[in-house]
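Students often ask why inverse folding is considered easier than folding. One informal answer: many sequences map to the same fold, so there is more than one right answer. In these notes we will look at a single instance of the problem. The structure comes first.
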């Protein structure tokens, strides 16, 4: 019989007791909320995206539920990295890896925010090169392999902790961007962030979100995310973390077969509760036992053999 050992994974030197992670953007703005997620069973946690300066974000409404998930255009609200350093320092007792998501409006801003996060105690940073609804950062940089190379290279020059890069699906060829990030030194790639989307009220004829366009998350984007992970796995040799529409252990296993070494869970928390991390981990363990596998690593990319 296999115990919890079968679930342990190591990504870019970070040791996770299971392959589930909190996705950036959900519950990750305070040490107490991160602690709650860790205690609920997540193998690692990722904070909300933090920039150099405080940002209020967009006016309400910023989120709308649709039949197939959620569309959000929050506008990257955050207290700024100097203020957030206190939360990072308070979260040092998490007992799971703490990954701080950062963004910037230039390669230098990404590097400065990442440096301050590491200085405060982050175990790794995740570069948000994929936010679809803020001009001058996120997707605008993440769609350009040259810009991705510049950002990743600058961050790698400034910190000695693992650098994850969160990729956007809003590109013609995600493998090209993945290769650029990997060649610039990315230690792992997270795929994917939200897909550009919109909701219109048919009675008023107006867009529902104040920013008009937001990012779709949830079940609707899972097949897109699985395809992206599959293509990235074929293109690079760094670990891939699957993200997008994961709400069951079956979803997680599908991502792993496509090439993900771990998975991030976000929107599903809004529909379920924090117990989802334990349920997904238990389901993966049961699947590994049933199939005769000894570890998560045994099934990563297995579908490529077909």
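Output (designed amino acids):
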């Amino acid at each position: 019989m296999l115990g919890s050992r079968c679930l342990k994974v190591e990504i870019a030197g970070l040791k996770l007791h299971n392959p589930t992670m909190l996705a950036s953007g959900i519950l990750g703005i305070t040490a107490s909320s991160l602690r709650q997620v860790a205690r609920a069973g997540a193998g690692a946690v990722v904070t909300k995206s933090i920039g150099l300066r405080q940002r209020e974000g967009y006016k309400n409404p910023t989120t709308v539920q649709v039949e197939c998930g959620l569309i959000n255009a929050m506008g990257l609200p955050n207290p700024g990295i100097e203020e957030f350093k206190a939360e990072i320092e308070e979260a040092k007792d998490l007992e799971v890896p703490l990954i701080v998501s950062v963004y910037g409006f230039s390669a230098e801003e990404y590097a400065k925010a990442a440096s301050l996060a590491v200085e405060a105690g982050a175990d790794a940073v995740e570069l948000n090169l994929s936010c679809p609804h803020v001009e001058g950062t996120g997707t605008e940089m993440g769609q350009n392999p040259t810009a991705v190379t510049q950002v990743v290279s600058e961050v790698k020059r400034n910190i000695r902790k693992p650098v994850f890069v969160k990729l956007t699906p809003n590109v013609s060829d995600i493998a090209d961007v993945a290769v650029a990030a990997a060649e610039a030194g990315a230690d792992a790639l997270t795929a994917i962030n939200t897909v550009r989307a919109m909701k219109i009220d048919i009675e008023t004829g107006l867009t529902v979100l104040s920013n008009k366009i937001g990012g779709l998350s949830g079940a609707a984007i899972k097949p897109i995310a699985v395809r992206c992970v599959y293509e990235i796995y074929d293109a690079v040799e760094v670990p891939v973390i699957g993200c997008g529409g994961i709400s069951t252990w079956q979803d997680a296993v599908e991502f792993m077969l496509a090439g993900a070494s771990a998975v991030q869970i976000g929107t599903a928390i809004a529909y379920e509760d924090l117990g989802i991390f334990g349920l997904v981990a238990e389901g993966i363990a049961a699947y590994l036992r049933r199939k005769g596998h000894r570890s998560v690593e045994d099934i990563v990319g297995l579908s490529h053999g077909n």
